[in-house]
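Read as amino acids, tokens; as here:

___
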Amino acid sequence: MINWTEVPKTELHLHIEGAAPPDFIRMLAAEKNVDLSKIFKDDGSYVWKDFAEFLQTYEAACSVLQTPDDFRRLTEAVLDVSAAHGVIYTEMFLSPDFCGGGDLEAWKDYLAAMTVGAENGKAKHGIETRFISTCIRHFGPEKAVQTAKITALTAGGLLTGYGMGGEERHLHAADFSKSFEIAAEAGLGLTSHAGEICGAESVRETLDFLNVARIGHGVRAIEDADLIARLVEEQIVLEVCPGSNIALNVYPTWGDHPIEKLRKAGVPVTVSTDDPPYFYTDMTREYRKLHETFGWGLADFKAINRTAMQAAFCDDKTRQRLMAKFE
């Protein structure tokens, strides 16, 4: 019997606010005298029934994350959970829009605090962390350019990537090309959410206009054979989050999820959790369900993790050191 918790893991797609443990948010709410009791179930987990309620719960939980030190503590709490599930390398999405309201000096303070949190997590668990700064799609292209400029000015250290999250149905990928050009010029790794809520065309547009090396989710590329061929040819890595896709009804069951078909077709796929406590998952559960559903064994997961480490936005010394864990 394999203990999936102890299997070393790499995670490339994790939203720092979305990974906030419920216990941590309750503690922070109590400290700030904020009543958030309505967003928790009796068992202490987050409560939501549909996408609209998910967003309401998410926003309410984030309302108590107000200072750089709150985010330092959040980083440490998230890394405690990740490390407990065998994660040895993680990349977290964070945004200057939520950390400092788009102000450069405030963002520097938040980033410094989260860096301390990541360093504390490494000292405690040995886990490596890198940060991906994101613009928010539904905030619009002008705001994205501002976010990219702020990110470019603070690139380096643990801040190694740039991406885009938010409402996938808003505008077109081409509208955000300038912001990605700014990030690319700063030497940042590029990724963007696409092909989750929207179909294969969303992935194609993202590849055409944003010059990304990775796609966040990207699973609906399975709907277009020509796009699959392109992903294979260009070796575009998909940051796949199966449990998230199922929780949000992108696919009804694990058996319906296309990750196995994508992998068999030669598309480089990785495994992540997205917003794990909201989707009642963790990396151990993702691995166990993939094993139960598709028969993936240790050799399959080592291959998945080698793909992830090759695509990671980190320095080669760190990459090679951690790649040795998956030989």
